[in-house]
Amino acid sequence: MTEPEDASRRRAIPPVICYPTATLPRLSEVQVARARAGWRKVDEVRVAPRDAAAFSAKAGQAFRISCIEGPQVGDLNLWNPNDFSERFYSGKTRALHGTHVTEGNRLWSSFPGLRPMATILADSLAWYGMDPFGGAVHDVIGTRCDPYTKTLLSGGQYHHCCHSNLTRAFSDATGKSILESEAYVHDVLNVFMCTGFTRDTGQYFMKASPVRPGDHLDFLAEIDLLGALSACPGGDCGAEHSSDTAACFPLLVEVFDTDLTPDWIPSPVNGYDRSHGR
User: Fold this and answer.
1) C-alpha distances in Å from residue 25, one per residue of 22, 28, 89, 228
2) What is the domain count for the chain?
3) Which of 202, 263, 191 is nearest to 38 (CA)?
4) Do the domain assignments include residue 106?
5) Residue 111: inside a domain, yes or no?
6) 169-208: per-residue pLDDT in tens?
7) Which DSSP letter does residue 94 get?
8) From the CB of residue 239, how many other CB atoms can be counted at a distance below 10 Å?
9) How far, in Å, are 146, 224, 226, 251 from residue 216 at the CA level?
10) In CA terms, which of 17, 171, 190, 196 is 20 to 30 Å from 52?
């Protein structure tokens, strides 16, 4: 097609933010201070390499995901344990906060709840920012590595990808069958993963994560949560997304009572009346 005469003018039109966030509810400074204070560990779960594990956090508790032995990324799913249909909504979180999340950003639940499930309290990789390639950490754009795409692109059966790992972890935690559990697994928060989009083709890329042992991501659970974390078979995702040869390491999830725990009140579900014009 011939480029129109006004092509430059059309490209120069400035963008408009789709969802201005000035009116979003936020934790107050007092709440943040109390969420960071008085931590008392009540549980911990070690996530084995190329596998996943489930954990629980009550509303008002904090949980920390830590790199403990070597550079490793993780795929996180969250559910309301009282209603599994309310789950983490990565797409709306991305639309509200951007492609990558960090301190102060909230993880939002699916319709019709659309309420904060967790707030990021601390991010030891916040220093990374956005690199010259357009890469940043903790993305909400990747869908999770899965056996279907693996079969589509290269054939064969691969069961240690994050989708399958999360399915097994959900099944183990709830007693539901594997096939029933798979329906509840959803798009993830890619914890510690360094990703972006190429400038020329707009393709999703990954690069070696800057995470090192001791790095962590801290959350306040804003509702009761069932979580599942997969230690991705790509390790630091510097070479392959799903692999039995990449160096992989465990991750650690710790759950803490905080000074907020005794009297935390979860946000109500979204106020839309669900009439949809009828």
Assistant:
1) 9, 9, 17, 26
2) 1
3) 263
4) yes
5) yes
6) 999 999 999 999 999 999 999 999 999 999 999 999 999 9
7) H
8) 14
9) 25, 21, 19, 10
10) 196
Cβ atoms < 10 Å from Cβ of 152 = 9
pLDDT tens column, 47-62: 999 999 999 999 999 9
Q: Is the pTM of this model over 0.90?
A: yes
With CA atoms as reference, report the closest residue to 54 among 220, 218, 176: 176
Closest CA to 31 of 217, 254, 259: 259
Q: Which residues contact 161 (CB under 8 A, 6 or more apart)?
A: 144, 145, 146, 147, 150, 233, 242
Domain assignment of residue 184, given as a range: 43-259
What is the distance between the alpha carbons of residues 5 and 30, in angstroms, rounded to a whole number? 56
Q: Decide: 44 and 253 in contact? Cβ < 8 Å.
A: yes
Model confidence over 5-40: pLDDT tens digits?
999 999 999 999 999 999 998 999 999 999 999 999
Task: Flag whether 110 is in a domain.
Answer: yes
Task: Give the C-alpha separation, 136 to 195, whole Å.
Answer: 6
Exposed, middle or buried: residue 12 (CB in 10 Å: 0-12, 13-18, 19+)?
exposed
For residues 106 and 42, give the distance between their C-alpha atoms in angstroms, rounded to a whole number: 23
**3-class SS at 190?**
strand
Query: What are φ and ψ of residue 113, in 5° steps?
Result: -65, -55
What does the pLDDT read at residue 27?
94
Please state the φ and ψ torsions of residue 182, each to the nearest 5 degrees: -55, -30
Distance CA 198, CA 132 (A): 11
In a domain, 22, yes or no: no
Residue type, 155: G
